Queue: 3 jobs
Job 1
Amino acid sequence: MRGSYIEILYAEIKMDNLFSPKQIGFCVGAIISDIPMVDKIDISAISTGDIIKIDGENVEIIKK
């Protein structure tokens, strides 16, 4: 099942020319490795060393 998902993801990204081949490889590697990813988080309030808790759409920033 993963193979077909990765092929679809790769084809969609490639058609839109949104990402470089290295970025596509990174995404595919994360999918294969089951590494969780998040998207569209406002990072302006996050500083180095902060702890971030993500639960669904809820994002909690714990300041260092």
Job 2
Amino acid sequence: MQYAKVIAVLAVLTAAACNTVEGAGEDVRAAGGAIDKSAEENNTYGKY
């Protein structure tokens, strides 16, 4: 019975970690998009 509790806790922690990593990936993607947009708006090489 004790093993079942440990496995249940590990399953919950694993699921929470997956959601956290997924959220971090979305944040990094959004930051990359913002940097890309800013770089395109401030590009001075193609404006001559």
Job 3
Amino acid sequence: MIAERTGRLPAPNMTVTLSQWGSITILLMVSAWLTLWSRESIERSLDLARKELAVRRKAEEALRESEGKYRKLVDYTLVGQYIHQDRIFMFCNKRFAEIFGYQDTAEIIGRNIQGFVAPESWKKVIQEIEYRESGEKEFSHYELQVVRKDGSLIQVEVLGSRIEYQGKPANQGSILDVTERRKAEDRLQASLQEKEVLLQEIHHRVKNNMQVISSLLNLQSKHLSDPAAVEMFQECQHRIRTMALVHESLYKSSDLSRIEFGSYLKSLASHLLHFNEVDTRRIRLETALEEVYLDIQTAIPTGLIANELLSNAMKHAFPGKRSGTIELALRPHPEGSYLLSVKDDGIGFPEDLDFRKTESLGLQIVSSLVDQVDGRLEILRDNGTEFRVVFQPPRYPRRTSGQEM
């Protein structure tokens, strides 16, 4: 247009015109680039949105699958599960409904928990719930009776805890039907009581039979004129009485498998003092007996050992009018063993006599019984005589079920 009017090209203004055309060109290029970039950006955004949606759908499917597995796990477990809020059932699984005799959990949800608890157990339930609500207990573990749909009562074991459910405090728990287990335990307890009564009766009869034998020996000894024979009969009576005393102690004990041996030895020593007509003003008996429990397999041989050693001291340690003291001791010893000691300050055991090779029947019996209880026999001759027996209770093999009564 300038050239048309002037007929020539204006040099100074040409640069401006070219700049204007260049600016327009640049603007057009930028506009085209921005349009292209926006389209690519939108496509990328859409692509990202599609991927995010796919991931979300996959996560939702995984969540639904997980919830389904969890629901099956909860529904088909052997333990009933429940949640109650303000004493109203908000949730329970199928096993919970089955325990109470219902076909569907909908028959339980929304009902008050008191309708499912036996009246005599309601106080216990409320007490445990209050413990958890007050924070005094974190968990509750107890048993109670509950009412089934048909009105029958069953025994259940409950484990409950405090939780938050839908933003409010609630109680959750699990229950297990232990009715059959309790019945089995009751039958077993009754059977055990019957066996205990039977075992007590056996010990009682054994003790009575031994007393009869002792009485027969006493009657027979009255027809003997030989003092040595009479003494032999009396010694047999002592031994029988010693064994009978073990059965008598077991009969009177609440534990029929073992006796408190210290008390037994005290009774045995008292009996021997009376039976041997010991003058207690001249010969004193001192005891240091700790609480030691032995089973019958150990108590009888150990009791016979004590019988022989005490009888020997009472008969031979203080001849004539000699006075003195007999000390009877029982205490635990290292490595699970025990020490039984019979000591006197009498005339003493002959130095040249080997108690292991003596002809005395009593000491022969002692040596044999010490081996039976896996023991060790020592004799000390310092200011009298002391017999020390360190013994280990035998470890008998456990009975098999076929050997039980």
